[in-house]
Amino acid sequence: MKTARRFVHTATTASLTAVLTGAAMGGATAVSTPQDFARTGSLRIAATAGGPVTSPPRGVAAQWVDTTDAPSGITVKLPGRAKVEHDSFTLSGKTYQIRRYKVSVGKNKVAFEVVDMHGADPKPELDPAVRGAAASISGTITRNQPLKVAGHSAREGRITFDNHGVPSVTLVRSVAADDHLVGLVAGGPATDEHGVKQLYQQLTSSLRIP
After folding, report:
1. What is the DSSP annotation of 105-173?
2. Each residue's pLDDT tens digit, 5-16
3. Higher pLDDT residue, 132 or 124?
4. Whole-angstrom Cα distance, residue 19 to residue 128?
5. What's the predicted TM-score (pTM) here?
6. Can you tell me the distance from the alpha carbon of 179 to that of 200, in angstroms, rounded to the nearest whole number?
7. Which 8-state DSSP code applies to residue 18?
8. Is the pLDDT of residue 41 over 90?
């Protein structure tokens, strides 16, 4: 079963793993690895300490291109063209398909992922996805809260972790989009968190669910 591995794959490197965000937690919370945390596909997006951002920063959007997941019709803008990567995991005898799109911007990474839920409700998977992402990289969740995205339930989180000695941060948003679980992620060195936040702003503000 590719449970823990699929969270790792969502980001552009194995150590850039942060997924959907969960309910508000007071203060930083280190997490362990309960088995069911890795039940869903990995989804990640950036979150700021003060709250979700919805408008793209000036000057960032110009180089970004539309990226549409053809089977679902879900679209985001990415800072470059990405080839689709296919993955899957099996849970309770059912195989779930994952399609992943990722782009590097210098040392920072941006990822967009869609998991087919086959009629299962994706909402219960939002918080486990965030926690599973943090657990898979021995990260610390410093923010994990629910929100609505165009009427869809979502979670948004911020995870800090050590990437081979480099303090790093991943911002994650996971969205329950009908029969799909959507993951949006931006991450990179903590010294460039401002740049990571800008990538996250543009990524999350560009999401279009048909």
Report:
1. ETTEEEEEEEEE-TT--SGGGHHHHHHHHHHHTT-EEEEEEEEEETTEEEEEEEEEEEETTEEEEEEEE
2. 333 333 322 222
3. 124
4. 9
5. 0.74
6. 24
7. -
8. no
